[in-house]
Amino acid sequence: MPSLVIWREKNICRNVWENRLSNKFWATKSFREFSEEEWEQICCRCGLCCLVKVQDEDDDEVYYTRVICHLFDCKTKLCKEYKNRCSLVPECLKVTSQNIDKLDWMPKKCAYRILYETGDLPEWHFLKKSNINPPELPENLVYDNMVNDDSLEDYIIEDDKF
User: Fold this and answer.
1) Is the whole model's pTM more than 0.90, yes or no?
2) pLDDT of 77-103, one tens digit each?
3) For strand 51-55 and strand 72-73, is the pairing parallel, antiparallel, or unpaired?
4) Other CB atoms closer than 10 Å to residue 16's CB: what's the count?
């Protein structure tokens, strides 16, 4: 199987694509048993987790904003510095099988969250069907290096779809 980096750069490697239905690892293994490559295949590259979030100090509610990490490339839907993202952006949190159960702020449409909560991938996921239709990012995004932290509240998305 090609390396993780190749899979990320080329979207979906041929081996993953050709074997997606014959190797339903997500249905036969606990997510904690996934290899690193299998875990990465769960990500549908929607970028919702890369949106900057703000937390209300009074009730701890988490709100998504139209501000996205400056490392996220909206055209390719890839992190420009995937391997180094957590060191370059200290707020970046690597989603793993060891912490997914603690990340209740993850987007409701996140494939990792859906798999954790239901035990199955969503029907739109590319490992289940050939025409992937991941959740869409909101319109009018702004990169985080263009916004002052004090003004993040001005970018809160009022829609509860996340």
Assistant:
1) no
2) 899 999 999 999 998 999 999 999 999
3) unpaired
4) 20
